[in-house]
User: What shape does this take?
Amino acid sequence: MWEQYRKTAKGMQIIIAVVTIAVVIWSHHLAAGAMFFVVMQLSAVLGAGWSVRLRRLQERGRLMRLGRG
Assistant: This one.
């Protein structure tokens, strides 16, 4: 999972920073920006884990089609 996270980390951190700053500027509430920041960070980690799971399922399906599973 961490390998997948590292592949997308730089781009995701830039997007998270831009969205967090935009929310703070738009809402004028630091708490709203902090909440968006935490939710987006958790989503990035969970998304990386989900991606790894889907890749494993896809590989297993490919192997089964080839008669190796």
